[in-house]
Amino acid sequence: MRVPEHVAIILDGNGRWAKSKGMPRSYGHMKGCANLESICDDVKDLGIRYFTVYAFSTENWKRSRDEVEGLMKLFRSYLKRCLKIADRNKMQVKVIGDITAFDPDIQESIRVLEDYSSKYNELYFQIALNYGSRDEMIRGIRSLARDVRDGRLNPEIIDEKIFEGYLDTAGVPDPDLLIRTSGELRLSNFLMWQLAYTEFYFTDVPWPDFNRDELVKAIETYNIRDRRYGGVKEE
Ligand code: IPE
Ligand code: IPE
Ligand code: MG
To answer: Annotated catalytic, 60?
Structure first.
């Protein structure tokens, strides 16, 4: 099995999964979070080099106060736990998204985790928190415009490579495979620039039930895809 270099997942369906069991949405998030830990180990084990997950969008603040607070609590404990996951998997962790919206202690945990794990290079793990693709591009363009204004960047030389350098994902290759769990067929503002030539895999399996077998199934499907990048397939 040819393993994609970079796999991205939209972790969706925690709420519906919990509801189907007569449990509160927060239970689904807890199980979803535990599942992220075990999938991370599987990703490492399968030899995937880059792994990106969508855990909280710029739009997710619209949820009830209760749910948002529950998620923040979960992030707090997960970010600490993630130090161990990083050790275990020799994994460098980076948070993408606008983290300035989070409470100072969460921002600090993110900095600690990123600094601590920067020594590892076997797996590169990106967690999208308060991430939105439109927001990422606007923040990038703002900073690019500042560089032009201050004479650090000549607008005539701006190309795709230079623009990419202003995105949160700077230096990370584009995903080869995008997975979205739980049946919705949309991007919900995830990595719109980076997914230009990515293969998409949608499954009805809700995130808390998405296990190693499901991941392997997605990779097997990816393997029979015919990627062309606008060219013609060589026979
Ligand atoms: C994904 O599950 C987790 C987050 C977006 C934080 P959802 O909470 O979106 O679950 P559903 O889609 O409502 O079932
Ligand atoms: C997308 O899921 C965001 C994350 C998984 C973090 P949502 O559940 O928020 O997306 P919509 O609202 O169904 O588009
Ligand atoms: Mg959802």
So the answer is: yes
